[in-house]
Structures are given as C-alpha cells and as structure tokens.
Amino acid sequence: MSLLNKLVVLTLPFVPKPIVHYFSKRYIAGPHVEDAVRVIRELNSKGIMATVDILGEEIKDKSEAEAAAAGYCDLLKIINEQKLDANVSLKLTHMGLKLDKDFCYQNIRDIIETAAKYNNFVRIDMEDHTTTSDTIEIFLRLKKDYENVGTVIQAYMRRTQKDLNELIKHKANLRYCKGIYNEPREVAYKDMAIINENFKYGLEKLLHNKCYVGIATHDEKLVWHALKVIDELGLKREEYEFQMLLGVDEQLRDIIVNDGHRLRVYVPFGEQWYAYSVRRLKENPNMAGYVFKAVFGL
Ligand SMILES: Cc1cc2nc3c(=O)[nH]c(=O)nc-3n(C[C@H](O)[C@H](O)[C@H](O)COP(=O)(O)OP(=O)(O)OC[C@H]3O[C@@H](n4cnc5c(N)ncnc54)[C@H](O)[C@@H]3O)c2cc1C
User: Fold this and answer.
1) What are the tens digits of pLDDT across the range 251-283?
2) pLDDT tens-place string over residues 36-76
3) Domain residue ranges of the chain, discontinuous segments joined by +
4) Where are the beta strands (DSSP E) in 68-173?
5) Does domain 29-272 have CATH number 3.20.20.220?
6) Taking the alpha carbons of 158, 180, 67, 214 in that order, is the dihedral positive or negative?
7) Catalytic-role residue among 109, 123, 175, 253
8) Which helix (H) or strand (E) holds 221?
C-alpha cells in the first residue's frame, strides 16, 4: 500500500459519513431489499450467482438480532418467489453472538430451516479472531443437522491449517479468503507473501480432499493458482466456485465467467453500511487517488 493510501486509510475514522458513503456506494446494493433484488437480477442475467448479506454486526440488543433473523427469512422467501440465483451470507455478531451464544445459534437455526424449505443455502461469514472458535463450533453444531450450511476460513490466521484439517473431516463447505480484519500478530500473519502461500496451501488441501470451496479472491495470482489446481485435479464445474465482492474488479469477474467457471458475487444491502464500507475502502489500492480527485475536482 502506498504511503499516501496509508495516510488516507488512517484518517478514515475522521472523514464525515456522507463522504464515506459517496466513495463506498459501489460496494453496496443500496438500503432496501429491492436494491439487492435489482443487483442480483443484473448479475444473474450475466450468468453470475449472488450471495446476499443484510448489513449489520455487533448488535447491542436481542431485538435487533431477532429483526435481522426475520429479515433473512423474508429474504429467502423473496429469492424463492422471484426465482433468483442467490443464497445468503450472515454474521454471527449480527445474530447476537456477543449477547448470548445459544440465542445466536437458535436465530441461525431458524434461518437455515427456512433456507432448507426453499432448497437454499446459508453461509456464516467469518469475523475477527474473537469469534473464530465460536463460528466453527456453531457451524459444526448446525452441520450435524443440516447440509445447507457453510462457513468461511481466513488464510491470514495462524490457526488456519489446523482448522482446515478438522473441517475437512466433516467435508465442510467453505469460503476461503485472505481475511479482512486488523488482527494482532500473535493470531494472524502480517506478511502478505506468507498469507498468499497459506492461501495456496489451504486451497490445495481443500480441493484435494473434495471439499466444496468458494474461492474468494480478486488477486489474479491466486485465481491462476486455483485454476491450476482445478485443472490438475480435473474438477468438474459444479465442484467449486469463485467468489468476488460487489464493486471490485468486474473485468477479472467477467474473465473467470467467460472461461466457463461458476462465480458468485457478495451483494450487501441495508441501512447499516458504515462498518462494511470502511473495511472495503481500506483495501482499495486507489483510495488516495479517489479522495484527491474529489477534493481537488480533478
Ligand atoms: C465473496 C467474498 C466474501 C468475503 N468474506 C469474508 C469474510 O467472511 N471474512 C473476512 O475476513 N473477509 C472476507 N472477505 C474479504 C477477504 O478476506 C479479503 O479481504 C478481500 O477479498 C481482499 O483480498 P484479495 O484476496 O482480493 O486480495 P488483495 O491482494 O487484497 O486484492 C487483490 C486486488 O483486488 C483489488 N481489490 C481488492 N479489494 C478491493 C477493494 N475493496 N476495492 C477495489 N479493489 C480491490 C485490488 O486490485 C487488489 O490489488 C471476502 C471476500 C470475498 C471476495
């Protein structure tokens, strides 16, 4: 990351919300479920699948989690009624993890039940390291009763290979990504070269062991490596998918799809856009350039 970009990232918490909103619009479908439906339709018309996230995390009150869980059940109904090619992604801290683990488990169970009724699928996103063990534990508990659930593993975590070894035994359906939270060195690798090698090592392990993987990256070197392993193993199209975020590198997205692979785009929507937007802006290598252009009217 350039020095200028680092500076912009450091000052982000002081940037007024309307400006953050302006720069982050591309990453979010909009405030309402209709916005998500519109974006999914556009993606589906290009042969691209979606996973929809209702924005929200770290809720402070059980009623917020209940409302979010009901929102996901409504969303699954809409996806079914409108015949959209989409599943859903959710965060445990949006479902009340930090308030009461069993309450959170029950909320997710209800969503998975609803998804099963519509023959659909629920993925549990991975948040920061304080939630990793709970996420894996809740996922494995749910997996005992349901096939239509998956979770996420982050290649930057030092524990990742051990977690993969365990999850492979359960033939887990996993999204595999680098990881986005700012973690302490004790728990996560900080060196991008190591993170990339750990991504490749874990991906090979998952695909060799016939786990279904959502290969979630915009890093073309890692996409190339995934394609190499897929080719070596002679995997069929239905045995894996690529995943990318809304608003990021649409050209690479089209290249992967036109090459005949399945690809799913993460489509977040809702009023709680701020935390998600800041994470996305921090990893945008052109952030400093955008800000300067806007400020100086270039
Ligand atoms: C579908 C999906 C779901 C995810 N779910 C999770 C999750 O549950 N938990 C979690 O911790 N992380 C999640 N992530 C984020 C992930 O961990 C990475 O932080 C993110 O994908 C960037 O890493 P990268 O592999 O694309 O590589 P990078 O090296 O970060 O990026 C590669 C290239 O992609 C482009 N790029 C990347 N991000 C942006 C951006 N925001 N704006 C513009 N260009 C960009 C740039 O050109 C960059 O050079 C998810 C990512 C995807 C694609």
Assistant:
1) 999 999 999 999 999 999 998 888 888 888 887
2) 999 999 999 999 999 999 999 998 999 999 999 999 999 99
3) 1-28+273-298, 29-272
4) 86-90, 122-124, 149-154
5) yes
6) negative
7) 175
8) helix 220-233
Given a contact cutoff of 8 angstroms between Cβ atoms, the answer to whether 176 and 198 are in contact is: no
Give the 3-state secondary structure of residue 161. Answer: helix
- Calculate the alpha carbon distances from 93 to 42, 61, 140, 145 in Å: 30, 11, 17, 22
Identify whether 175 is a catalytic site residue.
yes
Task: Output the CA 218–ligand 1 centroid distance in Å.
Answer: 6
pTM attached to this predicted model? 0.94
- Which of 218, 220, 243, 287 has most ligand 1 atoms within 8 Å of CB, for mutation? 218
Cα of 179 from ligand 1 centre, angstroms? 8
Q: Which residues make Cβ contacts (< 8 Å) with residue 200, sequence separation at least 6?
A: 222, 225
Q: Which of 191, 245, 246, 290 to mutate to test the pocket of ligand 1 (most atoms within 8 A of CB)?
A: 245
The residue nearest atom 25 of ligand 1, judged by CA position, is: 217
What 3-state DSSP class applies to 216? strand
Atom of ligand 1 nearest to the CA of 282: 41
